[in-house]
Design a protein that fits this description.
The complex is a heterotetramer, with 2 copies of chain A (370 residues) and 2 copies of chain B (324 residues). Chain A has 370 residues and is of the alpha/beta class. Chain A contains 11 helices and 7 strands. Chain A is globular. With 324 residues, chain B is of the alpha/beta class. A 5-stranded mixed β-sheet of chain B has the order 9-11-10-13-14, sandwiched between helices. Chain B has a 4-stranded mixed β-sheet with strand order 5-7-6-12, covered by helices on one side. The chains are: A alpha/beta (370), B alpha/beta (324). The structure holds thiamine diphosphate (2 copies) and magnesium ion (2 copies).
C-alpha cells in the first residue's frame, strides 16, 4: 500500500461511491446516527457543566464521532475494547447508559468507579469496555495480552486498542504492535489521527508518511481511512475485525480526522493554532452522515428535532439524579487496593475516622490545567 | 523586590539561565508555543527559538534519553515531564543511565541536566495527575532531588540546579504554583543545593516538610502555639543530598519529631528521616517519631481533600507526641 | 523430604501450578527451550508447550503489559524479568497499571499475576546484574512483594503467590539460587503470604533480614553468641504487606534492633522498619536502631565482596548496640 | 525499497562485483584486515582466560568482525559512537589499545573504568566511544540526543548507534528512531542482525520482513547489507554517514550476519540451536576479505603468520602486565557517584575502613550465568 491514499465512501455532500457501502440494515444505520448525535449532545452538556464548575474536567470529542461509532460497531459483544479518553460514543454504542457516563463525570456515589478517577476515565466491565488510564499508550500492549488470551482460550473474541496520533510515540505502541505481529494476536489497533497531541502537530510527532505505514515495521497490514466518513470506518473496521477473528492476525487502522475542540476543558487552542479547525466544520462526520441518511429517507428534520429533545431530556434528568448524590464514603478510599483490606490500611482508616478528623472541605480553588 | 508566583519564578529562572548560557535548552511536551500546560515555559520559545525550546514527540523515555545524549555532548538540557505521574516511561533512563553514567565511565562521560516536573495533589487531578513520586528517586545514588516551597527558592534552587555538575530532579509543587505569591529580589541570586531552611523556630518539637506541605506545617504550628507548644519547621528543600546536620541539630534541640509528606507513608521519604534519627540521635528523643503522610492507596479523585495531609491531621500528631 | 536448590524449587512450583491450573502461563526472554538463563523454567516448555511457556521479544514493558492484559482476560501469567536490573522499562506498567487497575475500576478489572525476577549481588554481575530493587516497589500500594530465602519458602511462597488475587513481585535471591540446598516435602504445600519467620530465637537483639541476607544474619548471630549476645533473626519473607506484628513483638522482647539489607541504605526498605519501631515501640528501645545495608553507590563489579554486607559488618553493628 | 534485497560486493570467494568497490587505499584495506584479525585474536584469548577463571565474563564477537570494522571505518574522529557490547573491533579501529580493552576485562587498577563494570562494558572518551551499558537499547535515544547537540552546535559531527536485532524491540529503539526522524538528526542507526537474541530467534523477535523496513515507520531510509562483506558494509555506512553529515537526516542500516559463538561465556547455544552456526563458517567475513586482499596481492601467508605472532605477543604482554595489578582501592567505590563525594558517602567510606573491616575475600563460587 502507498500510505497516503485514504479510503472514502461518503463524500462531503453525503453522496456514497456507488456500491461501495458496507451492508448495514436501516435500523443499524439509524442507531449509528443516533449514537453520533448523542455523543455530541453529551459532550456539549458536559463541557457546559464544566464551565459552570459543576464537574471538574472534561474531554470533548467533537468532530470524532465517526471514529467512535464506526470504530465501535465493528466489534461484537464478546470482544473487548481498550479505549482512549476521547470516545464516549463507543461506550454508548456498546450499551452503556448515558446516565452512567454522566455519573462518572460527577465522581460521586452514583459513579460505578467510586469517584476514584477523573471524569472521562470510564470503566464498564459488563460491556467489555476496559478501564481508561491517563498514561498514554499503556493499554495498547495490554490489549495485545488480552488478545493472546482470547486466542489461547479459543474464545473467538477480538481485542481493539484505540489511541491517538500522539499515542504512536509511546513505548507501548511499539511493544504492543511488535508483540501482536509476532503472536498474530487477534487485535485491531485503531489510531484516531486527529493531527494534534495537545499543542503538538502531527509533523512534530512523527516523520513517517502516515500512521498506517508504521504497520510494516511489525509485519501487519496498515490502512488509512477517512475518519469523518462513518461508512468507510465501518467498512475497514469490519474487515480488520474479521481478519483478526479468522486468525489472520492484527491490523493497524488509521482514521484521519481532526480534533475540532480544545484538547480538554483546560486547554486553550488559540495559543497554538489559529482557526484552522474551522476548515473541518464542512467535513463534520455527523452532518455528512445525516445527508446520506436523508437521501435514503432514513432521517428527517422531524426525527432530528425529536431526538434532540429526547437527548436534552435524558441528560437533564441524569444530571438532576446524579448531582444531588453524596460523595463516596471514606471507606471507599481504602477498598480495592487489594482484594482484602490489609491490616495496615485498616489502621489508617481507623485513625482517620476516629482521631484525625475529616471535617475540612474540598479546596474551592483547585482547578485542573490540562 | 517583586511579588511573583512559583510559575513565574520558574519561568524567570529558565529565561535568565538561557540568556547566561547558550548551551541551556528546554525540551518536553507542549513546552514550546503552548508554553507548557502550567505555563512555566511561556514565551521562552519566542525568545530563544525552536532549537532551544523543543516540542518533543509523546515519549518520556525519549525526552530524558535524548536529554542525556545532549548533556553528554555538552548541552545543558532542562527537560520537562508534563506531570510527574508520567515520568515512569523514563524511569529506566533515569535509574539505569542518568544516575550511573559518571560512575560507570569513571568520570569520562557525565550528563548534568535538570528534569523539571510538577508533582503533588491539590488540583483535582485524580490518580494520575496528583502523585508525589520523590521516594522512588531518593533511593537512587547519583541523583540530586530538589523540592522548592516558595517562589524565592524555586528560582534560586532551579538556577543552582541548572549550574550543578550532577543530574537533578526538580519537583515543582503544582498545588502552590500560582498562590501564594512570594517576594523575589530583582538582582541575580542562587540558593545553594543541599541546605534545609528553618521556617519557624521552636523548642518543643521539630516538624519536617517540603513543597506544598510547608504551609500546612506552618498552619499546624500556629494551632500548636495556641496550646503553648512551639514547633520548629524544617523545610528540607533538597532531599538528596539530605541536610542531615540540620535535621539532627533541630531534633537534638527539641527532642521531638513529626515528619510530614504528601506521598504515601509506607517506605516514603520521611521514613528515612525517622531511621536517621533512630540511628544517630535516639538518646535525645522524648517521644515517638510520628509520621503524617498520604495514605497507602492510589490517589483518589473525589476524596482528594481527605487524602491530602491537612493541618488538622498534623496537629493531631503533634498533640500525641506532646502528650507523650 | 528431598534436598533441592532454590532454582529447582521455583521450577517445581511452576510445574505444579501449571498442572493444577491450565490458565497459568509463563512468558519472558529465553524462558522457553533455553529454560531461562538461570534454568528456573527448564523443561517447562517441553511439558506445557510454546503457548504456555512463551519466549517474548526483548521488551520488559511488553512482557508485563501483555501479562496484565492476559490476567485481565482470565489467564494467570507468571512473567519472568531476566534480571531485576532490567525491570525498569516495565516500571510504568507496574506502577501505573498493575498496581492500580483494581482500584481505578472499583474492582471491575483485576490483574492477578506474579512477576518473577532474580535480584541481588554475589554472582559478579556488576552494575546491572546485581541490584536489589525492592525499595522501588514497596512504596507502591496495590503490589505484594515477596522474597524467599530458602528452597522450602521459594516453592511454598511462589505457589501461594500464583494463587493470590493480587499482583505479586517475587524477588529471587540469585546468589543462593544453587547453594545451599534445602529440604522440601514431597507432598503439596504452600507458605502463607504476609508472615515473617523467626529463624533463630534470641532475647538480646532483633536482626531483620530477607533473601540472601538471612544466612549472613545467622552467621553474624553465631559470632555474637560467642560474646554471649543472643540474637533473634526475623526473616521477613513478605515485605508488603509487612508482618508488622512479628516485628514489634520481637523488638518488644529484645529491646534492640539491627536491620540488614543488600540494597543501598538511603531510603531503603529497612528504613521503614526503623520508622515503624520509632513510631510505635520507641519506649521499648534500649539502643539506637542500626542499619547494615549496601552503600549508597551503584553496584561495583570488582569490589562486589566489599559492597555486599557480610557477617563482619553485621557483627560490628551488633557490638555497637550491645555496648550501648 | 523492497526490504529483503541485500547489498553485497564480495561473494564468498572474495570476488568483487565489478566496479562496485568503495574506493579505499591499500593502507586502509590492510589496516581493516589487521583489525578484523586482531578482534578475532582478542576474542579467542579472552574466552580462554574466562575459561581458566582468570577473567569473570566475556562476550565473543566471532563472525561479526565485518560489522565492527566496516561499521567503525565510516565514522571520523569527531564523530561519536554509542556501541553495543559485541564490538571490540570498532574500539581497535578507532585507536583504542588492545591493552586497554584487556585491562577492562580484568577490572583492576589498570582499567580506566576502575573495575566498576563487567568485562566488555568499555568506555573511552578520547576516542569518542561512549560508555557501554548493559540495559539493551537505552543508548539508541542517547545517540539521537548527542546528534541533536552536534547539529545544534554545528559541529559537523555524526552519532552512530550500534545495536542488535533484539535491541529493535526495546522502548528506546522506538523513541530513538522516532525522535531522529522528526529532528532529522545526524545519526546513523546500525543493527547487527545476527539473528539471535540469546536463545530467541529473529522470527520470535519481530514479524517484519526485515529490520531495514522498520525505517519507514519513522520516515527515514533503511538499507539491508551483507554484514559479512566488509566492503559492502563500508560502502553503505559511508553513504549513511555522508547523508547525516550533509544534514539529510538519519539512516537505518541493517547488517545481516550471524552470531557464530555463544551469546556470552555463560551461554550454551547447544540448548537451543543445533549446529546451524556451521553453515556460516563458509561465509566467514575475515576469510572472505582475506581472499579479496590476496587476489589484489595486498595480503599473503607470510603476512598472516607474522601478524598472528605479533598479536599473540601483544596479548601475552598485555595480560602479563595487567593481571598482576591490584584491585581498585576502596575509595574508588565512593567516587564518581557525584562530582564531589557528599558527606553521607564520606561517612560510609570512613565507617568501612575504620570500623567495619573489609578483610574478607571475594566469593570463589560466584559465577556469572548469562
Ligand atoms: C505518558 C503520558 N505523557 C503525557 C501525558 C499528557 N497528555 C495527555 S493527552 C496528551 C496528548 C495525546 O495526544 P493523542 O495521543 O494524539 O490523543 P488525542 O488527545 O489527540 O486524542 C498528552 C501529552 C499523558 N497523559 N501520558
Ligand atoms: C533491557 C534488557 N533486557 C534484557 C537483557 C538481557 N540480555 C542481554 S543481551 C540480550 C540479547 C540481545 O540480543 P541482540 O540485541 O540481538 O544483541 P546480540 O546479543 O545478538 O548482539 C538480552 C536479552 C538486557 N541486557 N537488557
Ligand atoms: Mg491526537
Ligand atoms: Mg542478535
Amino acid at each position: 500500500m502507498t500510505a497516503p491514499d485514504m479510503l472514502q465512501i461518503l463524500d462531503e455532500t453525503g453522496q456514497a461511491t456507488l456500491g461501495s457501502e458496507p451492508n448495514l440494515d436501516d435500523v443499524t444505520l439509524v442507531k449509528m446516527y443516533e449514537c453520533m448525535l448523542s455523543t455530541r449532545a453529551l459532550d456539549e452538556r458536559m463541557i457546559n457543566l464544566q464551565r459552570q464548575g459543576r464537574i471538574g474536567f472534561y474531554v470533548p470529542s467533537t468532530g470524532e464521532e465517526a471514529v467512535q461509532i464506526g470504530g465501535g460497531l465493528a466489534f461484537g459483544e464478546r470482544d473487548w475494547i481498550f479505549p482512549s479518553y476521547r470516545m464516549p460514543g463507543t461506550f454508548l454504542m456498546r450499551g452503556v447508559e448515558m446516565h452512567d457516563l454522566v455519573a462518572n463525570c460527577f465522581g460521586n456515589e452514583a459513579d460505578v468507579c467510586k469517584g476514584r478517577q477523573m471524569p472521562v476515565h470510564y470503566a464498564f466491565a459488563k460491556q467489555h469496555m476496559v478501564s481508561i488510564s491517563s498514561p498514554i499508550g499503556t493499554h495498547i500492549i495490554q490489549a495485545v495480552g488480552a488478545a493472546y488470551a482470547m486466542k489461547h482460550k479459543q474464545a473467538g473474541a477480538v481485542a481493539g486498542a484505540f489511541f491517538g496520533d500522539g499515542g504512536t510515540s509511546a513505548n507501548d505502541f511499539h511493544s504492543g504492535m511488535n508483540f501482536a505481529g509476532v503472536w498474530k494476536a487477534p487485535c485491531v489497533f485503531v489510531c484516531s489521527n486527529n493531527q494534534w497531541a495537545i499543542s503538538v502537530p502531527l509533523e512534530k510527532q512523527t516523520a513517517s508518511e502516515s500512521i498506517a505505514i508504521k504497520a510494516e515495521a511489525y509485519g501487519m497490514p496498515g490502512v488509512r481511512v477517512d475518519g469523518n466518513d462513518v461508512l468507510a470506518v465501518v467498512q475497514v473496521m469490519n474487515e480488520a475485525v474479521f481478519r483478526a477473528r479468522q486468525g489472520e492476525g492484527p491490523t493497524l487502522v488509521e482514521l484521519m480526522t481532526y480534533r475540532r475542540g480544545p484538547h480538554s476543558s483546560s486547554d486553550d487552542p488559540t495559543r497554538y493554532r489559529g482557526n484552522q479547525a474551522d476548515e473541518w466544520l464542512s467535513r463534520d462526520p455527523i452532518l455528512r452522515f445525516r445527508k446520506y441518511l436523508e437521501r435514503r429517507d432514513l432521517w428527517s428534520e422531524e426525527k432530528e428535532n425529536l431526538l434532540q429533545e429526547t437527548l436534552a431530556e435524558t441528560l437533564k434528568t441524569a444530571v438532576k439524579d446524579i448531582e444531588s448524590q453524596p460523595q463516596p464514603g471514606l471507606d471507599t478510599m481504602f477498598e480495592d487496593v487489594y482484594e482484602n483490606v490489609p491490616p495496615g490500611l485498616r489502621e489508617q482508616y481507623g485513625d482517620l475516622v476516629e482521631k484525625e478528623g475529616t471535617g475540612h472541605e474540598p479546596d474551592p480553588d483547585a482547578a485542573f490545567p490540562l | 523586590m517583586s511579588e511573583i508566583t512559583i510559575v513565574q519564578a520558574v519561568n524567570d529562572a529558565l529565561a535568565e539561565e538561557m540568556r547566561r548560557d547558550e548551551d541551556v535548552v528546554i525540551l518536553g511536551e507542549d513546552v514550546g508555543i503552548n508554553g507548557g500546560v502550567f505555563r512555566c515555559t511561556a514565551d521562552l520559545q519566542s525568545e530563544f527559538g525552536e532549537d532551544r525550546v523543543i516540542d518533543t514527540p509523546l515519549s518520556e523515555s525519549g525526552i530524558i534519553g535524548s536529554a542525556i545524549g545532549m548533556a553528554m555532548y555538552g548541552l545543558r538540557p532542562v527537560p520537562e515531564i508534563q506531570f510527574s505521574d508520567f515520568i515512569w516511561p523514563a524511569f529506566d533512563q533515569i535509574t539505569s543511565e542518568l544516575s550511573k553514567m559518571r560512575y560507570r565511565s569513571a568520570g569520562q562521560f557525565t550528563c548534568p541536566l535538570v528534569i523539571r516536573t510538577p508533582y503533588g495533589g491539590g488540583i483535582r487531578g485524580g490518580l494520575y495527575h496528583s502523585q508525589s513520586p520523590e521516594s522512588y528517586f531518593t533511593h537512587t545514588a547519583g541523583l540530586v532531588v530538589v523540592v522548592p516551597s516558595s517562589a524565592y527558592d524555586a528560582k534560586g534552587l532551579l538556577k543552582a540546579a541548572i549550574r550543578s555538575p550532577d543530574p537533578v530532579l526538580f519537583l515543582e509543587p503544582k498545588r502552590i504554583y500560582r498562590a501564594p505569591k512570594g517576594e523575589v529580589p530583582e538582582e541575580e541570586y542562587v540558593v545553594e543545593l543541599g541546605k534545609a531552611a528553618v521556617r519557624r523556630e521552636g523548642s518543643d518539637f521539630t516538624l519536617t516538610c517540603y513543597g506544598a506541605m510547608v504551609s500546612v506545617a506552618m498552619e499546624a504550628c500556629e494551632k500548636a502555639a495556641e496550646k503553648g507548644w512551639e514547633g520548629e519547621v524544617l523545610d528540607l528543600r533538597t532531599l538528596v543530598p539530605l541536610d542531615e546536620a540540620a535535621l539532627l541539630e533541630s531534633v537534638t534541640k527539641t527532642g521531638r519529631l513529626v515528619t510530614l509528606q504528601e506521598a504515601p507513608k509506607f517506605c516514603g521519604f520521611s521514613s528515612e528521616l525517622s531511621a536517621i534519627v533512630a540511628e544517630k540521635a535516639i538518646d535525645v528523643l522524648e517521644a515517638p517519631i510520628k509520621r503524617v503522610a498520604g495514605f497507602d492507596v492510589p490517589f483518589p479523585y473525589t476524596l482528594e481533600h481527605v487524602y491530602m495531609p491537612h493541618a488538622e491531621r498534623v496537629f493531631h500528631a503533634i498533640e500525641e507526641i506532646m502528650a507523650w
